[in-house]
Every structure is written in structure tokens, then in C-alpha cells.
Amino acid sequence: MSDENRGVVYLGPNHVEVQRIDDPRMETPDGRKIDHGVILKVVSTNICGSDQHMVRGRTTAPSGLVLGHEITGEVIETGSDVEMVRKGDLVSVPFNVACGRCRCCREQHTGVCLTVNSSRAGGAYGYVDMGGWVGGQARYVMVPYADFNLLRFPDKAQALERIRDLTMLTDILPTGFHGAINAKVGVGSTVYIAGAGPVGMAAAASARILGAAVVMIGDFNPERLAHAKAVGFEPIDLQSHDKLGDVIAQVIGVPEVDSFIDAVGFEARGYDGKEQPAVILNQAMEVTRPAGAIGIPGLYVTEDPGAHEAAAQKGNLTLRLGEGWAKSQSFHTGQTPVLRYNRQLMQAILHGRLPIADIVNATVISLEDAPRGYHDFDKGAPRKFVLDPHGMLKNAA
Fold first, then answer.
1. What Enzyme Commission number(s) apply to this enzyme (predicted)?
2. Measuring CA to CA, how many Å separate 354 from each of 138, 166, 230, 269?
3. Which residue of 140, 203, 312, 379 has the fewest C-beta atoms within 10 A of its own C-beta?
4. Cα(221)–Cα(348) distance, rounded to whole angstroms?
5. Ramachandran sector of residue 85 (left: φ over 0; alpha: ψ -120 to 50; beta: rest)
């Protein structure tokens, strides 16, 4: 590496800075040397709503954590055990750190790899309780198990032209797609998505490409709703209604949908503006038809020190589960196994079928501007902020 490494560092609630950080090394978080990794020059790295949960102080993230799990980069160094990836390749990094060898990885459940995190199943870059892997909102980063984890773009020049779209393959596009798949969206489906942030918009794009007849997106934020409408979805203004089924009926004639996608998670708010961490899940059971399906890509945490309810601080929610049981609904939660979807989504992007950058309103800023991006995103800006650590996205922007 010819220049110093810099990264976005979490220093406490609502406080991030771009600082000099250590150069990446071919080793695990506990210091064991590895030969299966690569060093990447980060081409693009995105601010995610999951990062925002930490930055708000709603997790047990420690001060000093280098953030960032949405990483696209150029390989500049390979370990001796890497065979399929070469120096100079442009690659997408799934946010899941996965070994490719354990039972879960072999079953394509890479979001809950059994070997990359000593405290629980599942690992991720730059995230609390996810194994200690250094984040990629930086100039350089190390990726382990490179042959298994990395998705190589077949034409580097073509990929750089579409980098604003392809950068979404690391997390939010597969996450939205996973939510739509788990909500059993198909040709002719009626779909409601809770949350018009980037993941909600990615879920809407996924529902569209899967053949949904109607895609509704609910939110309190008028700017986000305006953007959703501008890119062709049906906005649901939650400030103007207090019963979700009634407004759904105004759109499709009946007060229930085939498929419901929760793209909000544990920081959900009710109509009164107060936090109600289970409100989306309870709404989902209420407005999803009997035998319908609910996909839950929105984040729910095991501990939320900032919760107003004592039970929610321990991850316990007040669910009306009996309604979902009585209606024989299906539920699916958990981290997205990105490798299950990213190759086919890449093809959809490269062949012009999925203009995801426009749908999520991708906005390129410099790495040094990351604190401003976090601030604006926290205020509800209808944008997906893409960091450009080396100035390589200027033409694409």
C-alpha cells in the first residue's frame, strides 16, 4: 500500500470520525495468521442503516470500532492459499464473513457461519458482536476465505461504469431480495413494505423484478415517500392514517396483502411517534392474508440498551403471535445469506434489468465526508450514501 489507511471510527453515540487506522493484515481478529485472505483497495463502501443503529448508541458497540460491512474493492494482495482470485480483480464482498466449510455454509446459510465468530453464529465486518472483523469504511481492508466469499466482476471496465449499482450487491440489494423471497413474492402478488429507507426500496425493486402486481411502501418521511413514488411504487403516508388495513384497501380493494416485508426493525415507531419495537411485526400479522408470508430483513437485536421498554432492552418484544398462528402465516427472519443471491442479481444489473442505484438514490461522497453522510442519513435523507475512498467513482457519480 502506497498511502496510509484511513477509516470511519465509532467513538460513541452520534460520534464518528475518519482517522488513521492500522493497515490490514492477513490474520484473524484474535491474531492467528491466515493464508486464505486478500487485501483490497476499497473502491466503494456504503453507509448502512445497520451502521446507523450502532452510531445512535442503540447497541453495545465499543468505542474505536472501525465501521463498514458493504465493501467493493480491487484485489492488491493475495494469500498463498488463494487460487480463484487474482491481483487486479474487482470484487464484491458479501457482508457475511463465512468460512465455506461448516454445516451452515454448506447449506447456503452463510449469515450464520459457525466458525468465524467465537461468541455466536454469524460474522460480519465492522459490526458489534460479529466476530471482531475490521470494517471496510476505509481505504484498505482484509477479506478472509477469499475464494469462497468474493464475487468477481467478469469485466472490470464494465463494472466500473455500473459501480453505483454493483456496490449494492454487498448487502442491501440481496437483503431486500431475501425479504421478498421469504415473503413469497411472485407474479401477481400484492406486497406491502414497511419502511422506505434503502433496504425497503431494495425490497420494492426486488418485488418488482419478481413480478409483483402492486408494491406499496409505508413510511412517515414525506421525502422518502416522494422518492418512492417517483421511481414507480405506491407510497403509503403513515402520518395520514391510523389503521393500515384501511389504506391498503384504498389501493387494492381489500385490507390485506399476499406478502409483507419488514424493512424497519427494532427502532420502529407507532402512529404517535413513540418507539414500539414490535409494532411492525404486529401490523404484519394483521394485514397479511391467511396463509400469506412475512419476510423480516429489518434488524432485531439481542440487546438494545437505548430501548424505552425494559423487556426490549433484552430483545424481548410484545408480539400478538396468536394472530399469525391462527392465520397460518409464515415468518422468516435473520441475516441475509448474500452468496445465495448476489451472482444472479449482478447479472440483472449488468444486463440493465435492475437500476438499483436510481431506486435507492445512490449518492457518492468522499470517505472524509462520512460523518456528514451519517448525520444526513440519520435525519431521514432519501438517499443511500456511497463512500469513495480513492476518488474512483467520480465518473460513475
1. 1.2.1.46
2. 27, 10, 16, 31
3. 379
4. 30
5. beta
**pTM for this structure?**
0.96
Question: What's the rounded Cα separation, in Å, for the pair 176 and 178?
Answer: 5
Tell me the domains of the chain and their CATH numbers.
Answer: 6-171+337-388 (3.90.180.10), 175-333 (3.40.50.720)
Which residue carries 424497519 as its cell? Answer: 264
Query: What is the strand order of the sheet 190-194 is part of?
Result: 234-237, 214-219, 190-194, 257-262, 288-296, 330-333
Instruction: Quote the pLDDT of residue 332.
Output: 96
Q: Which residue has the cell 449499482?
A: 165
Task: Convert the pLDDT of each residue in 165-215 to its tens digit.
Answer: 999 999 999 999 999 999 999 999 999 999 999 999 999 999 999 999 999
Compute the distance between CA of residue 126 and CA of residue 132 in angstroms, rounded to an integer: 7
Structural Rg of the chain based on CA atoms: 20
All residues at 6 or more sequence positions from 277 whose CB lies less than 8 Å from its CB, including other chains? 266, 267, 268, 300, 304, 307, 309, 312, 317
